[in-house]
């Protein structure tokens, strides 16, 4: 891996993530709704992947560069489109409304620091394997193939779970009910679990080089922490806790890693 070229890429990718977040912040101020930052999350990863693919030309293996860039862009764009469709016609996300209501000083500047700049930094950190993989000279190997297979399983799991939930919520008869069908009967968070697989898969694509593997391990670890203990599973479970039927659903359904629904008598809570 070419160290100086990779260092330039790290700086350029940080600039790309920052540019997406600042542009989104400007749009949010005009529209008066900060929930659009969730759309920018996937777009920022896409921007980083495209910048990396462009700058890594002549340094890394072309097949690996293209495969990792396409995988990241497909994941990021699908997520952005899904979130944009889901939020169409809705007002502010309750999470951001509560946060800004407690904000010290000017709420807009608080949102800039605590949401946009923080998410931009996380995009840069989590995308390290995507950047490193593009600078590896190794061609197609078992780790690249395994990583892409894991990525594909994760993307499929995430997309199917999102589709099942959207179809469930579109039926007026399900209003106020807890989604417990399809993948949602095996895990309470198939979309988060899919993200988990996607980023461990992308990490594997950078593991042909031991230095790159060691330097980028922080990426899937941070994403796993966010999904399980940070802004993912933990917060959504707390938000849903008072909904009718949630307790019974949580008692029989895995909190994260998929498994068949548990018998009602067994209430041990695994991930």
Automatic annotation (TrEMBL):
Name this polypeptide is given: DUF1295 domain-containing protein
Gene source species: Streptomyces hydrogenans
Pfam families reported for this sequence: DUF1295
Regions that span the bilayer: 6-30, 39-60, 115-136, 142-160
Keyword Cell membrane assigned: no
Keywords, alphabetical: Membrane, Transmembrane, Transmembrane helix
Residues in the signal sequence: none
